[in-house]
């Protein structure tokens, strides 16, 4: 996944939630302590906020992290399906039972 994809997905979620809350860009900027211009750049996908501003935006706008992360995973070209989740859990469980402490590369969802 590229930085452009991450910016595009984050911008989509910020714009969607801001409009759902009927906030202007200026109101959102003031609420999270940034500038109106910065919010414009984020929503247009031109810029990605730093970690702490991204967290402030996500919390303030009540961005659903499951939805956001699902969009990121799907954009990566390797969506997680129920069967992949089950395979990962079975593999991880089997590795733990066998005493394998090097269980890597598996995400438990």
Protein architecture, described:
The protein has 109 residues and is mainly alpha-helical. 65% of the residues lie in helices and 0% in strands. The chain has 6 helices and no strands. The chain starts with a helix and ends in a 12-residue tail after the last helix. 11% of the residues are buried.
Shape descriptor reads: elongated
User: What is the overall number of helices?
Assistant: 6
Query: What is the helix content?
Result: 55-70%
Instruction: Report Rg.
Output: 18 Å
- List low-pLDDT spans: 103-109
Structural class: mainly alpha
Per DSSP E runs of 2 or more residues, the count of β-strands stands at 0
Please describe the biggest sheet, giving its number of strands, its sense, and whether it closes into a barrel: none
Sketch the topology as an H/E string, one letter per element: HHHHHH
Query: First CA to last CA: what distance?
Result: 19 Å
- The proportion of residues in beta strands is under 5%
**Overall pLDDT, averaged?**
82
């Amino acid at each position: 996944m590229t930085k452009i994809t991450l910016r595009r997905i984050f911008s989509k979620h910020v714009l969607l939630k801001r409009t759902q809350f009927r906030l202007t860009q200026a109101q959102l900027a003031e609420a999270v302590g940034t500038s109106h211009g910065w919010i414009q750049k984020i929503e247009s996908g031109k810029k990605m906020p730093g970690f702490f501003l991204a967290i402030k935006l996500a919390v303030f706008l009540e961005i659903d992290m499951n939805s956001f992360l699902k969009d990121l995973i799907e954009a990566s070209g390797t969506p997680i399906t129920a069967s992949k989740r089950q395979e990962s859990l079975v593999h991880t469980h089997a590795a733990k039972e066998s005493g394998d402490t090097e269980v890597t590369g598996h995400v438990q969802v």
